[in-house]
Amino acid sequence: MFTAKENRYEKMIYRRCGKSGLKLPAVSLGFWQNFGHKGCFANMENMVHTAFDLGITHFDLANNYGNPYNGSAEENFGRILDGMRHYRDEMCISTKAGYDMWPGPYGDKNGSRKYLTASLDQSLKRMKLDYVDIFYHHVFDPNTPLEETALALDNAVKQGKALYVGISNYNKAQTEEIMSIFKDLHTPFVVNQPSYAMLNRWIEDDGLDKFAAESGFGLAVFSPLYQGFLTNKYLKGVPEDSRVGKGQTWIGNQLDDKMVARLNKLNDIAAERGQSLSQMALSWVLKNEAVTTVLIGASRPEQITENAACIEKLDFTESELARIEAVLRSDS
Ligand SMILES: NC(=O)c1ccc[n+]([C@@H]2O[C@H](COP(=O)([O-])OP(=O)(O)OC[C@H]3O[C@@H](n4cnc5c(N)ncnc54)[C@H](OP(=O)(O)O)[C@@H]3O)[C@@H](O)[C@H]2O)c1
Predict the structure, then answer these.
(1) β-strand 14-16 against 23-25: which pairing, if any?
(2) Cα of 183 to ligand 1 centre, how many Å?
(3) What is the percent of the chain with per-residue pLDDT over 90, rounded to a whole number?
(4) Which residue from 128, 153, 295, 297 has the highest number of Cβ atoms inside 10 Å of its Cβ?
């Protein structure tokens, strides 16, 4: 039986999710990769225990996380939880549905009430939970009326299967539209989950971050390390045991000489700040006040320990920000 370290909450900071009552740790753990049946279970368990001992109380899942993608991460998380269910009330667990999941017209990429309702039931069974804290629609579906998707999420709350609802990969306009429906329904909508990193700033261009801050919902941002680029991993080439080395990402072709040079310059700035590159990249994302939490991925416990320490230095000087900006905007 896992026993968490007593002082774990002193090691993390907690930020309010928008204007809701829910607080999330500044750093959260995501289960997209490395938690499937092809991985080593002891390593997964160790990662969850390490995270929880660092005060990382938020675990982000989805029906399609893990390899194979049909529920394997949720199943493994359920097994890990078996050794720590007595901490359930100290955890915030989220899951999602929206991407392709099972054969036929009811489990493909969509936002129907039929799919979301069945999928949440399956997720609860796999994790052996009565409820999740946050249930997300994973990706905007232009073919399903937003009222239907909103009602399906709202219904999950009314049935006691989710406490809050979220949306993911919705831009500002799509968020505005579904929010007006949530408002009418009094749905506890608290969070949007977009991608955001030093190398991926679409939410700033779209205005989603400003809109979140003004409207009072939180942002749980994914791939804040740009799937591992913004770490010390690729500074001198591509290691075999990396996401790019294993061909587990579609952005591997962006890792050209110019990108590696840029990463090395960012690494120099991080070193001057007394941080690793991954820590600086996470601190940089967290300086955006609209961001509630960064959802990090990991392949080993040491990465989680290193990344969680980003909260020790969240402030940037004007000069550091200007130098970072110059590197990000440079073409060489
Ligand atoms: N809503 C959505 O559509 C969506 C989409 C994607 C992700 N997400 C969520 O966001 C979470 C994180 O996504 P992500 O895994 O792409 O995030 P990320 O934090 O940008 O990348 C994580 C990867 O970076 C590497 N890494 C992390 N820390 C490191 C360190 N200190 N030193 C060296 N390498 C390090 C590891 O890769 P190696 O395997 O190479 O070691 C790790 O798997 C997911 O698990 C999921 O919960 C949501």
Answers:
(1) antiparallel
(2) 33
(3) 93
(4) 153
**Burial class of 1 by CB neighbour count within 10 A (0 to 12, 13 to 18, 19+):** exposed
pLDDT tens digits, 123-140: 999 999 999 999 999 999
Nearest CA to ligand 1 atom 29: 303
Give the Å distance between the CA of 96 and the centre of ligand 1: 17
What tens digit of pLDDT does each residue of 22-81 get? 999 999 999 999 999 988 999 999 999 999 999 999 999 999 999 988 899 999 999 999
Supply 219's token pair. Answer: 């942002």
Cβ < 6 Å from ligand 1: which residues?
Answer: 30-34, 60, 138, 168-169, 193, 222-228, 231-233, 242-243, 278, 295-299, 303, 306-307
β-partners of residue 285 are none
CB distance 267 to 277 below 8 Å: yes
- The two tokens of residue 252 are 């591997």
Q: Which fold has domain 13-251+276-312?
A: TIM Barrel (3.20.20)
| Residue 197 DSSP one-character state | B
- What 3-state DSSP class applies to 267? helix
> What residues contact 300, with CB distance under 8 A and at least 6 apart?
43, 47
Q: What is the CA angle 33-119-90, rounded to 5?
A: 65
- 162 within 8 A of 137, measured Cβ to Cβ: no
49 backbone dihedrals φ, ψ, rounded to 5°: -65, -45
Of 307, 308, 310, 304, the closest CA to residue 47 belongs to: 304
| Cα-Cα end-to-end distance for the chain | 52
Q: How far apart are CA 330 and CA 314, in angstroms?
A: 24
279 φ/ψ angles, rounded to the nearest 5 degrees:
-65, -45
- CA of residue 53 to ligand 1 center, whole Å: 19
Question: How do the domains of the chain map onto residue ranges?
Answer: 13-251+276-312
